[in-house]
Amino acid sequence: MPAVVIALLVAVAFFLGYRFYSPYLANKVYALQESFVTPAHEFRDGIDFVPTNKHVLFGHHFTSVAGAAPIVGPAIAVVWGWGPALAWVVLGTIFASGAHDFGSIVVSVRNKAQNIGTLTQTVINPRSRTLFLLIIFFLVTLVNAVFAIVIANLFMANPAVVIPIVLEIPIAIIVGQIIYRQRTAALAPSIVGVVLLYASIPLGRAFPIEIDGFAEMVGVQPRTAWVVLLFLYAGLASRIPVWILLQPRDYINSHQLFIALGAILLGIIIGMNEIVAPMLNRDLPPDTPNWFPFLFVTIACGAISGFHSLVASGTTSKQLDKETDARYVGYMGSLGEGSLAVGAILATTAGIAIVGLDWNTQYATFGDAAGGAVGNFVQGVAGFVSNFGIPVEIGTIFAALVVISFAATTMDSGVRLQRYIFQEIGEIAGIRVLKENLNLVTVVAVIVPLLLALDPELAFGRLWTLFGTTNQLTAGLALAVIAVWVLTRKRNPLAQIIPLAFLLTMTTWALFVQLGDLWAARDWLLLILDAVIFILAVWLIVEAVLALRRAQAAKQEAPAPEPDRSGGQE
C-alpha cells in the first residue's frame, strides 16, 4: 500500500477528532469557562506560574510529552504489523489521549494547579495519593534515565548534531528575552530561531564533537560522560524560570514538529513509496510477545501515556492563560504526538527501504526491533527527505536533531517534575528541608535518575520492560481521577471510563503475564518490582471503582455545584 494513502487518511481522522470530538469534551464534559481565573494568574511568580500565550504553551506541552517515546514505541510495535500499530495510534489519540491530556490540564487548573498524584487525595481518598506518588516516582525516574541514555547514544552515533543542539540553548534564551522583555509576538522570533538552528547544521558537519578523549581522561565511558553532562544541564534548566529557556525552546521545537511532519509527508508524496512491512505479521520472531495485550503497552506515547498527565498537571497547568486554551494545548498536543507516532510507523515500514535497509532483517527478532527503533526512524526519515533532493547524510542529522530536541525538552520537564514529586514526598513524610530547599531537592531529583542511567543495561535493557505497563497504569489512574471529577459535577464520564476500563484491563493483564515470564527467567529484581506495581495497580483500581460508585451515588442525591469562577479550588 502507498504510504501517502495512510498519511492522508490519518490527517482526515485527526481533523475530524479536533473539529467534532474536542468541542464536545470542552463544552459538555469539562465545561470550560474563559472567565475562570487560572492558577497562572492567581499564583503568578515569574518562575513556575507564568501566564503564557497558548501557541507558546502548546510548544512547551507537546515537546515535553513527546520526547523519544512516540518514536520508540511505534517503531517497535510494527513488528506485529503496521495495521494494529496504526489502529491503536489513531483510535488511542482521538478517543483516549485527547480526553486524558485535555482533562488532566482542566482538573489541575480547577484545583490550584495540583498535580494528578496530589489530586487523588481529594478526588479519590488520601491513601491513594501516596500509592499514586510511588508509581509516578518510578515512572519519572525511568523516563529521565532512559531519555538521557537515548540522547547520549544519538550524540555518539551522530557527532555532527552536537553543535546544533548546544547552540539551540543560547538561541532559545535570546528568543525568550525578545518575547518577554519586549512583549512581542512569539511567532517571528521563534521562526528565526528555527532558521538559525538549521543553519548551524553545516557547522556541526564541519566540526563534529566527540568526547572520547575527555571521557578517557576522567576514566569513564563516552556514554557515561554524556549522561552526566546531560543531567547537569537538566538540573540547571529545571531551576531557572520557565520563560527564560524552557518555553522559548519548546516553541522552537514545536515548529520542528511541523517541519518534520511536513518533510515526511512531502517525501512520501514525491516518492510514492510503498509500505514494505506486512499489515499483520503472521511470521513473528519467536521472542515476540503476544500483541494482545503487549501492543497497547508498547505504544504508550503516541496513543495515550500517563506521563502526559504528569506534564499536563505539573507544568502546563501552571502556565495556562485562559481555561479555554486547554482544548488547543491538550487535545491538539495529543494530535501532534499521534502524528509523530504515525510518522514513526511510516518511516520504519516504508522509509527505511529507500536507504537500502531490509525490513525483515531490521525486525528479525523482537530484540532487534527494540534495539534499533530510534535508528530505524532516523534512517527512515532520511530516506523520505532524500526524495526531494536532500542528501541522506544531512537527512540523518536532521532526523537526529528532531529526536534529541524533543528528548532533551522532556528531560528538562522531567527533572522539574521529579523536583515537585520529591517536595510532595517531603510534605507527606514531614521532611521540611526536602519540601522547602529547592536547591537540595533539585540535586536529589538529578542524582536519583542519574545513578540509574549510569547502568544502561539495568535502565534500558531490563527496567524499560516495565515502563510501558507503569506508564499505561498511570494513564488509567489519571483517567479515573478525571472521571470522578466529571461525575461529581453531574456530567457524563463515559469519555474517560471507556478508555479507563480498556487501559486498566490491558495493563493488569500485561503485568500478570510479565510476572510469569520473570519468574521463569528467575529475574528477581524485575519480578519484585513487577509484583509491587501489580499490587499497587489492583489496589488503586479498587480505590478508583469505589470512588466512582460514591460519585455516582452523590450525583443522584445532590444538585450539580455551581462552577467556581474565582480561581479557587473546585
What this model shows, in words?
- The structure is a single chain.
- This protein has 570 residues and is mainly alpha-helical.
- The chain has a single domain, classed as Amino acid/polyamine transporter I, CATH 1.20.1740.10.
- The chain is 76% helix and 0% strand.
- It has 26 helices and no strands.
- The protein has helices at residues 3-29, 39-42, 54-66, 69-77, 82-109, 116-123, 126-157, 162-181, 187-199, 201-206, 212-218, 222-239, 246-271, 291-298, 306-314, 325-354, 359-362, 366-371, 373-386, 392-429, 432-436, 438-453, 456-462, 467-488, 494-521, 524-557.
- α7 (126-157) packs across α22 (438-453), α24 (467-488) runs antiparallel to α25 and α24 runs parallel beside α26 (524-557).
- The radius of gyration is 22 Å and the shape is globular.
- The N and C termini lie far apart (51 Å).
Question: What can be said about this structure in brief?
Answer:
This protein has 570 residues and is mostly helical. The protein has helices at 3-29, 39-42, 54-66, 69-77, 82-109, 116-123, 126-157, 162-181, 187-199, 201-206, 212-218, 222-239, 246-271, 291-298, 306-314, 325-354, 359-362, 366-371, 373-386, 392-429, 432-436, 438-453, 456-462, 467-488, 494-521, 524-557. It has one domain (3-557): Amino acid/polyamine transporter I (Up-down Bundle), CATH 1.20.1740.10.
Features:
mainly alpha; 570 residues; disordered C terminus; globular
The unreliable regions are: 564-568
Strand content: under 5%
Q: How large is the radius of gyration?
A: 22 Å
How many distinct domains? 1
Would you give the CATH topology?
A: Amino acid/polyamine transporter I
Could you give a short account of the major beta sheet? none
- The sequence of SSEs as H and E is HHHHHHHHHHHHHHHHHHHHHHHHHH
CATH architecture: Up-down Bundle
What portion of residues is helical? over 70%
CATH superfamily: Amino acid/polyamine transporter I
Oligomer: single chain
